[in-house]
Amino acid sequence: MTIRVRFAPSPTGLLHIGNARTALINWLFVRSHQLKGQKAHFLLRQDDTDIERSKEEYAEAIKQDLAWLGITHDAFMKQSDRFARYDEMKQKLIDEGRLYPCYETPEELDFKRKRQMSRGEPPLYDRAALKLTETEKATFEKEGRRPHWRFKLLPEEIKWQDLIRGENQFHGAHLSDPVLVRADGAYLYTLTSVVDDIDTEITHILRGEDHVTNTAVQVQLFEALGRKADTIHFSHTTLLKDVDGSPLSKRLGSLSLRNLREQGIEPMAINCLLARLGTSQPIELHHNLDELAQGFDLATFSRTPPRFDMHDLETLNRKIYQVYPYEALIPKLKDLGAPDITETIWNHVRGNLKTLEELSQWQQVFFGEINPTVEDKDYLQTALKLLPPTPWSTETWSDWTAAIKAETGRKGRDLFMPLRQALTGFDHGPEMKELLPLLGYGLAVKRLSI
């Protein structure tokens, strides 16, 4: 048997950290089986039935973002190419009495929901449309009402063994008949996804736990359309939380892959974090996706919602730069605003970088102008007078600061920090014993002469 999964984003916005995690989990699941010699297939499906909101620029951006992460696909399809197939399946459900027209307006449905809730009842659709006569339907049609179509759930137990959540149980009598086709004729995800999963022979559906109730409905829909639901393996991951425990969805816009890429976050930093968030495995740097795939196992995923911390991403980014070869950096230096950064400078500053964009600041430190905050000019004048003659080595800094300490009586932070700030503009960074020889005598004199 060939394992088949799909990642199905809607091109209505940019790919963000949440759905990138879903894409990565699906890809790693496939790749982990391929590395064991099993046949496995990854489908990228574009869920673009929402014609008004779907944009080609978003569709292209999604493909570019996935490619940037290294997530490749074995096949690609668009739902907008399959309306004839959805029409066919809609008619099948109508013919079998599982899809029925409803004529309530949104206002009428809202009134019903509020009335049920005021009575302490669950807000389930009351199936009033099933009691309509043909004459009543015709009257609604004459009024200009166009029906939306609901799937009639069977009043029976719904079960599946989730690969992460364990056994899940629902009952059709406790769920509301879902709308599958809107009044404007648009197909909703609940139907189109099942039709596509059947036609493409998907074996594993890996997605977020916000789809759990939807899965309960789709189990019956699979059966109604001719696919035994027990031939599909469902898996629902917990959703990411923000650092404070609030829903991450509140700021997903700022966590688009495009935004992270523009900030200088490396793709493998994202992959390493997202692959291990919510699992019992440690978050650590891996150099490629195959390394991640070798240790991938759905059994390690927890039911506790993981927290996404930007600091973790920056830490992984730093670790990447610690082994990042200068040869790979050279083509990027001009665009980064750091054309003069040498290999020696790179080797000394890379451990302090959150992103490559910060190299432009070090370009200014070594080759440009800085604007340090200077509070004690007299101290800097004393330091200037004691500046050792060239040539300089890594011993020069300790010799110089020892002389300043003897002259001024300063020690610790009061001794070192004003010098670091005056020479680099920063209050942190690589060891000054390494930086001072790279700055050189002339630049040091200039910056101490304030």
From TrEMBL:
Gene3D superfamilies: 1.10.10.350, HUPs
Reactions catalysed, as given in the entry: tRNA(Glu) + L-glutamate + ATP = L-glutamyl-tRNA(Glu) + AMP + diphosphate
Motif ('HIGH' region): 9-19
Keyword list, A-Z: Aminoacyl-tRNA synthetase, ATP-binding, Cytoplasm, Ligase, Nucleotide-binding, Protein biosynthesis
Protein name (record): Glutamate--tRNA ligase
Keyword field contains Lyase: no
Residue span(s) of domain Glutamyl/glutaminyl-tRNA synthetase class Ib catalytic: 3-314
GO BP annotation list: glutamyl-tRNA aminoacylation
UniProt source species: Candidatus Odyssella acanthamoebae
Principal subcellular localization: cytoplasm
Function: Catalyzes the attachment of glutamate to tRNA(Glu) in a two-step reaction: glutamate is first activated by ATP to form Glu-AMP and then transferred to the acceptor end of tRNA(Glu).
GO MF terms, alphabetically ordered: ATP binding; glutamate-tRNA ligase activity; tRNA binding
PROSITE patterns for the chain: AA_TRNA_LIGASE_I (PS00178)
GO cellular component: cytoplasm
InterPro entries the UniProt entry points to: aa-tRNA-synth_I_cd-bd, aa-tRNA-synth_I_codon-bd_sub2, aa-tRNA-synth_I_CS, aa_tRNA-synth_I_cd-bd_sf, Glu-tRNA-ligase_bac/mito, Glu/Gln-tRNA-synth, Glu/Gln-tRNA-synth_Ib_cat-dom, GluQ/Sye
